[in-house]
Protein: Glutamate dehydrogenase
Amino acid sequence: MTTELNYTAAQQYIDEVFTQLKEKNAHQPEFLQAAEEILLSLTPVFEQHPEYITHNVLSRIVEPDRIISFRVTWQDDNNNVHVNRGYRVQFNNVIGPYKGGLRFHPSVNESIMKFLAFEQIFKNALTGLPIGGGKGGSDFNPKGKSDAEIMRFCQAFMTELYRHIGPDVDVPAGDIGVGGREIGYLWGQYKRIRGAYEAGVLTGKTPGYGGSLARKEATGYGLVYFVAEMLREKSESFLDKTVVVSGSGNVAIYAIEKAQHYGAKVVAASDSSGYIYDPEGIDLHALKDIKEVKGERISTYLNYRPNATFTPGCDAIWSIPCDIALPCATQNEINGDAARTLIDNGVKFVAEGANMPSDLEAINLFLDNDVYFGPAKAANAGGVATSALEMSQNSGRTSWSFAEVDGKLQEIMHSIYTESKEAAEKYGFAGNLVIGSNIAGFVKVANGLVSEGVY
Ligand code: GLU
Structure:
């Protein structure tokens, strides 16, 4: 009877908060999607922690501390003046300074920034390191821009952003469209304006100039370390498994590298123009040359490997039969239809390298069809975890070897997996890493909010 009453109170509380959230954010579908996924996981937590209801932690967690939006004016190589919109969402700093990447992509809007920053809170909590949740970026499209234009844009962006960030305040990094080159330009401008070498203000810097070894590889490697844990659970390994990876940025490239190292055959990769299928296994040297050295479209892979095929458009990549699917491109790239095709073709493991690449229908299909599913906030947390290791090195004015950072990354991914798995078991959802990771991350933030008191 008591459980029944608690359940009702917990369920009612969550429903009320979500209803209000939908009313207030009716035009932010990505944010509502991310929030719904987490809120749906939390009923058993509120049943066991009525103090979270008393402290109204849910309403406090779903409202960002602040959203900064600003004008970025820059000049192209022909002296034309352009205006873009910049953002920084400082969502929650209960566990540490706001932390999260910057995304430069024409799709960027407030909804996408908020979904990413919201996810980041729980992902960062899962790492066990002292970092809060934030995200930023701009609707600037880096495609086709010259190096000088990218530099001028980054400088203009930082000329406004610098006043809102700092090593103990908010620490941006990269995301889609922001890699080592952009972080370098942003860092240079911050240093110039501040007149101080505050290395810990940004992560993803170049090693030798405040950056951490293994940061570039960390999201992709961490994803594969996480999947290795999932495989081990089922007495399996990467050896001879067929893997489909979407994307061809940092996350995808280093996931492919580590999966191949463990003996998997990775047969596909993609960019926004389409995907390549190489049944003999992706030639990573060729892919790196195309993407990291030349910055070309992925179709040029056929010049290196004439037996491979290129298909324009990205949807059909999920029709390639595989044992393991690693979506590493962008949000909502796997919908219900794609999930059904993967399941019909025998996929057994899906783990998310991108943020929210599977929509809610796809996730439920995986969970209901015995596909072991590794959600983004756990599986791709290796990148931001290594960013926190970069912050530690910056604070200590030291730098660690590649092996040392990689070793810590492996330990972190192991403990994220274990915590997520155990939280799922504890709350009665054994084997469901979506619920497990949501609960494990949420509880850390909720406890912090309760201990801080109301403000
Ligand atoms: N953009 C990455 C993420 O989604 C990394 C963020 C960071 O290193 O701060 O987690």
Remarks:
- The domain at 218-374 is CATH 3.40.50.720 (Rossmann fold).
- The CA atoms of residues 424 and 430 lie 5 Å apart.
